Amino acid sequence: MQAVPELPLMIAPFVVIAGVMMLILRVRPSDVPAPPPPDPAAHLEERKQVIYENLRDLNFEFRLGKLSDADYEKTKTGLQNELAQVLAEIDRLAGAAPPKPEPEAAKPAAPQTWACPKCGAQFDKAMKFCGECGAPMTAGKEETR
Ligand SMILES: [Zn+2]
Predict the structure, then answer these.
(1) What are the sequence ranges of the domains in the chain?
(2) Distance of CA 112 from the midpoint of ligand 1 (Å)
(3) Strand runs (DSSP E) across 39-108, as ranges?
(4) pTM exceeds cut of 0.70
(5) pLDDT value of residue 141
(6) Which of 16, 37, 110, 127 is a good FRET partner for 51, with 20 to 30 A between their CA atoms?
(7) H or E element: which one contains 114?
């Protein structure tokens, strides 16, 4: 009965391996909290940066003489095409996004006035207190209609 005491030593590596396997198997994708859905715009922005970087690297390598003219042109055209696609996609997403606020210049230049909510006195600039009656002009943006 001399082999028996050695048995645990012999199976120890298998126990370790089994333990590691169980650890690996336990961490299934379903156990990992799902990452938030990628923001398509952020993803495109990332791609754009990568393409810009690749173009920079390409120019750098070309200047070092590592690339033939043909290789350079071919790679550059490929990258530029990809960049154009990414930029078009960014534009498309931007177009689908809520419309941008109109530029200030596009609005008719209506003189803005602030009216006192208490006495109705009007002022051409926002004030904390009415200059006529001293009432607080909280909103400070009472536009006259
Ligand atoms: Zn007032």
Answers:
(1) 39-97, 112-145
(2) 17
(3) none
(4) no
(5) 46
(6) 37
(7) strand 114-115
